[in-house]
Amino acid sequence: MVLGFEYKSSQIFAFFISLSLFPIVSLILSKSLSTFCIVLMPVAVSNPFAVQSYQVAIYSHAQDIPQFALDSLRYHPVKSNTILPLLEKRMNQPPSNNGGEVWVVVHTGLDVKFIASVTCGAMGNYPLFIFTPIPYSYLHPSAISSPVYLLAQTLLRSVHRSRIYSVFAPQVVAEVFAEVWSSLTNIGVVQKPYYHAMISYVTNETLTLRNISSIQGAHCELRPATLSDTNAVAELCFLFASDSEPFLLDREGAMYEARTLIQSGQCWVYTVTRPYEPTKIACLVAYTRNTNVAATITKVVTHHQFRSQGCAEKLVGRVCLHLLATKRYVSLFVGITNRAANVYRKVGFIGVGEGAQPVQDIDPYIELGFDRKYVQLGHW
Questions:
Q1: Domain that holds residue 303
Q2: Are 195 and 375 in contact (CB under 8 A)?
Q3: What residues does 224 pair with on adjacent strands?
Q4: Which pLDDT tens digit goes with each residue over 130-167?
């Protein structure tokens, strides 16, 4: 179904509010998660959002997502790393009751503006992830407010407001969405961001493996984790989560995460064995969002006993070498103030660390949470 309306730019918010006056719209979106489109007629301006129409479509089954949306995600494998890996996994599974997972595509014709996902991982519900293929320099709040409002209102008609506990997206997109969502739901935005990071990636062309000495007086090994490492891996998962407020883990949760990482083959460890002592795990690297062409490092943690000894740089480099044997990119997010950015720069991740020069698509991302009195916190 397509509804067409003309409006002046100053009338856009009144128009969106007026959508609530059309009960058939509510019925289509809340009773059936089939494609629904709204066509808008904005005033043309010279930017990627100068369109003849916006359309929004929402899908409850990955198999229904149109090819042009998949093509956009696959053309930007680094920027889409929060959405594409799980989407492709779901596409290879039989359609079933997916626990409320949905994907929202905002587009004009075959031109994607935003893709958002409400999905679930092994450890719980993910934040709302939002992808855009648009270069960051074009993402001005005034330019994106209309399509983001459309995305938010469509989402609200399909997902309970308590499900959206946070949004993680390019910084400007997340900030605009959070403001819009808060106005629609009357749920406040948590003042302190949950996560503020830069995205980066390494390729075979930029990968640098420095000759770093192993820990003196010990036999060291860099290898995939095995089930015999479960307890030590769980300890590092617990330590990692303890610095990731509000996404904390208890010991049982950390043990479950460790088993999941090891059994999926998505975890490497740096082991240290000294004479007459049991083997210890100095460092852990996990990569849990992967496609045919790109992998994403999602966890790097070094035990406090082995910090400042080059363990993380050595293990990250070895894992990247392993992944780049079959993939074109290895991506990650690193906190804006996290000194680990310097480690990643040494390995070959571009655009981060001291002295890094600006690089296209190495952009700031932010996770903004919503008042936890009214939402159900997940984990990622």
A1: 219-327
A2: no
A3: 268
A4: 999 999 999 999 999 999 999 999 999 999 999 999 99
Phi, psi of 2, rounded to the nearest 5 degrees: -125, 130
* pTM, 2 dp: 0.87
Q: What is the pLDDT of residues 339-372, one digit of tens each?
A: 999 999 999 999 999 989 899 999 999 999 999 9
Distance (Å, whole) CA 30 – CA 28: 6
Domain count of the fold of the chain: 2
| Separation of alpha carbons 375 and 163, rounded Å | 6
Domain harbouring 267, CATH code: 3.40.630.30
- Tokens describing residue 171: 């910084």
- Token look-up 């969002």 returns 289
